[in-house]
Structure formats: C-alpha cells, structure tokens
Design a protein that fits this description.
With 452 residues, the protein is α/β, with parallel strands linked by helices. Helices cover 42% and strands 15% of the residues. 48% of the residues are buried. It binds pyridoxal-5'-phosphate (PLP).
C-alpha cells in the first residue's frame, strides 16, 4: 500500500540520517533534508522515490554496460556458490583472477602486461605510488621521490592519493601535507587558461610546464608524472592533441615514470579501449577501476610494463603490500563477464563509429546557448562550460553555483548530470540510445533556458 511504502521510505531516511556518514556530502545538509533514496536501476535509468531518472553520469562514470544486466548477476551468484572467497596472498590464485589478469594484459597497450588487483581507484593509485618508490630503490635511485601531478587532478581519497589531487579542499582540511611529496603543475585546460594561444600551442606550453618543474627540482629527484588522460572529475578537461605526445617525450628524456590514471577513461570511454590509444602515448603504469566491472563489483587494477615489473621482481623479497580482497574471485569473475559483454556487443567501436559522433554532434548544438562557452567531447565523455560572457570566456563566481542550478533544473526534467564548478560533466552508459541522447540535449537546453 502507499502508506506502507511511505513508512518504509521514512524508516530508511531516518536510519540513514542518524547513522550513515556519506562520502563527499555536507553532514549538516543531511540533518536538515533527508537523503534521496535510490533503490532500483535498469539500462540507463535509476529509480527512487517514485522518480525515474536518465543517468547521464553512469553512476560515477562506471556503469558502462548499463544497469541491471542479469548475466553479471548470474556470474556473481555462480562464483559465490563455487568459491565465495579465498585470498591471493603467498602464491595462491583463483581461475577468474588469472583469466582477468591475462585479459587486461591482452587489451592494454604496449608492454603493460602485469596486473596487481585492488578494490578501488584510490587503492590502485596508492599501490602505484608505493611500487614506484620501491622501483627507484631497486634501481639505486632512492632520491627519486617527487610525484608531479596537475591542477584539477583527481586521483583518489586515500592519504597519498588525495595529496595528488588538484584541489586543496581535498587535502587541506585533513592536514595532509603535499610538500616534498607532490608538485602540482598547470592543467592542459585550454578553454580557461589558453588565452590567445591556439589549442596546439597551448598544449605544448602545458606539457612544457612539466619539464620546467622537472628542471626546477632536478630530474634526479622526480619519480613519476601522474595524470588522467582526460581530467574527468573536475571538469572533463580534454587536452589539445599536442599535449600527450610531448608529455611522454619529456618523461622519456628525463627517465621519469609516466602513470596514466585511466580509472574513468579505461575500457572504452573515449572510443578506444584506452585513452592512451586515443591520444597517442604510452605509459609505464596504468590504473583502472570503474569500467573494469562497470561498477557491479568493487575492483581495480594497477597494470605495469614488463620493464617495471621486472625491476620489482628481480630481487627475492616478499612484496609487503596488498589487500585481503585483492583479486577477489567474485569481483574478477564479474569483471571478466563485463569485458566479454563489451567485446561481444562491440560497445567500444559503437562509441567510435556511431553513438560517440552522434553524442558530440547533438551536444555541441548547445554551444549556441548564451550560457554555454564551450562543449568538449571525447567519445562518451563531455564537459559543458558555463560562461557568464562567452566572448571573453568570463566565468560566474563559483560560489554562485550556476552549474548547480542548471544541474537541479536538469534533474527536475529527469536527467542526471554532474556540476563540477562552472562545468557540467556527462559520461553516460555505453548502451545509450540516440533517443536518449536527444532527451539529454533537450533537457539540458530547457534547463539552461530556465536558469538564463
Ligand atoms: N582516479 C580517477 C581519475 C577518478 O576519477 C577516481 C574516482 O572518481 C579515482 C581515481 C578514485 O577512484 P575510487 O573512487 O574508486 O577510489
């Protein structure tokens, strides 16, 4: 009955308000207004409290094959019945873990062939940081400790990874020190910082900022450059084409490790299996999460080049690092099935040849809108830049929250996008239809009109 449903909802909200501390949420706001209870999801839609919303964020950029696929539920149930869990420490493995490691190695570009499993993107990046330190010790260069990261970066929420993040709000309140551990350089964010330069010129200049930092601190002190091919979380920042090949060349020249954080871009989002292929560069280390299991299970991976893993493995010494649930059999089995679906349904080529170009063509029509400064798209990832003045690219003060208002107006029309500080970020599921893309564009146009 409706009363029973209302009572059940009220109970969940009450328990949650009293006992649940949420990530990336103002706890006080939850005291004043109850949390929104989401309780079902199918295809590109999420449902809760009587609403059905088109999720143009695919969860948080992870549900690539769409919600509610029974194949994954079946694999999870079968694996759980067969062997619910066993660890992978001290020379033990399980069949799906070995298969998945080999599958990732086969898909990954270049010599990225050795996989370490963890549970979240943060843990994969944290693992990378520890192994990089070990690598340089093994190579007799323990002084190489500095990690170069970039403004607008997001690499995770653990202590070390939040130090890499490009917004001080993510490390300052927790007293996490970045000094001596991380150096930040400019982001290749042409729309905001390109000035009069062409994207091409600006991309080179942004790459050179990395080399300037290397020369300033001394190459002998730099361990690695850490970077997302597209900075997704803080604005879907798509670098100019000139950027990545030059960053790679700079790292090679100074023998500095290059880490591609492909937690969002990995497994097809840009229309190639990995964004390194889209942008034409090759990293020494790559981190993966989200799309690895389409968010059906928590699982992540650090993928190492042969050269890197050879150095880690050249000495007989236990690797003193790992997680109880590293290479969890259920998570690895689900991830394998997810990759199989991506391949069988040709979802990555669909992005390159069909739905990606359609998404880009339709979404860029929003550039006509007086509030929109730029629409940038790569595959199925997009950023819509909100501008106060298009000609001068002047922005609204971030505190005004114009992006939030547009996001709320879109939500009221049944669409989820993510406001990210004067940008709206979109990364819909790969199974999105043309009609659903049309709905996204229409709902956004109306939301922009309402706020303008
Ligand atoms: N790296 C990137 C590029 C991400 O976007 C994220 C999460 O959004 C992470 C790392 C952290 O992943 P997780 O939230 O699974 O720890």
């Amino acid at each position: 009955t409706p009363e029973a449903l209302r009572a059940a909802l009220a109970r969940v909200q009450r328990l949650d308000q009293r006992h649940h501390m949420h990530p990336f949420t103002d706890p006080r706001a939850l005291v004043q207004a109850p949390p929104f209870v989401m309780d079902a999801a199918q295809g590109c839609y999420v449902m809760g409290q009587g609403l059905r919303l088109l999720d143009a964020m695919a969860g948080l950029g992870c549900v690539n094959i769409g919600y509610g696929r029974p194949e994954l539920a079946e694999v999870a149930a079968e694996t759980m019945k067969q062997m619910s869990f066993y660890h992978s420490f001290a020379g033990v493995t399980n069949p799906p873990a070995a298969e998945l490691a080999a599958r990732i190695a086969a898909l990954a570009p270049g010599a990225l062939n050795r996989v370490f499993f963890a549970n979240s993107g943060s843990e994969a990046n944290e693992t990378a940081i520890k192994l990089i330190n070990l690598y340089w010790r093994r190579r007799g260069q323990p002084g190489r400790r500095l990690l170069i990261s970039r403004d607008f970066a997001y690499h995770g929420s653990t202590v070390a990874t939040s130090a890499l993040n490009g917004l001080t709000a993510m490390h300052k309140p927790f007293g996490i020190r970045t000094v001596g551990h991380v150096a930040h350089v400019a982001s290749p964010f042409w729309y905001r910082f390109g000035g009069d330069l062409t994207p091409e010129e600006f991309g080179k200049r942004a790459a050179d900022a990395i080399e300037h930092k290397i020369m300033e601190v001394g190459p002998q002190n730099v361990a690695a450059v850490f970077a997302e091919p597209i900075q997704c979380t803080l604005g879907a920042i798509i670098p100019p084409e000139s950027y990545w090949p030059r960053v790679e060349a700079i790292c090679r020249k100074h023998e500095i490790l290059l880490v591609a954080d492909e937690v969002v871009t990995g497994f097809g989002r840009t229309g190639r299996w990995f964004a390194q292929e889209t942008f034409g560069f090759q990293a020494d280390l790559m981190t993966l999460a989200k799309g690895l299991s389409s968010g059906y299970q928590p699982i992540s991976a650090l993928v190492m080049s042969d050269d890197f893993s050879d150095v880690i493995g050249e000495q007989s010494e236990v690797l003193q690092h790992g997680f109880t649930t590293s290479a969890h059999p259920v998570a690895t089995a689900v991830a394998l099935k997810n990759l199989q679906i991506l391949e069988e349904e040709k979802l990555v080529t669909r992005i390159a040849d069909d739905i990606g170009p359609y998404f880009a063509a339709r979404l860029t029509t929003l550039e006509q809108h007086p509030l929109v400064g730029e629409v940038r798209v790569s595959g199925l990832i997009a950023g819509i830049e909100i501008a106060e003045d298009k000609a001068s690219r002047r922005q609204y003060p971030v505190d005004l929250g114009v992006d939030q208002l547009v996001g709320q107006a879109a939500l009221a029309r049944g669409l989820i996008v993510r406001p990210a500080g004067n940008v709206l970020v979109l990364c819909p599921p790969f199974v999105i239809s043309r009609a659903e893309v049309d709905f996204i564009v229409d709902a956004l146009a109306e939301a922009l009109d309402q706020i303008h």
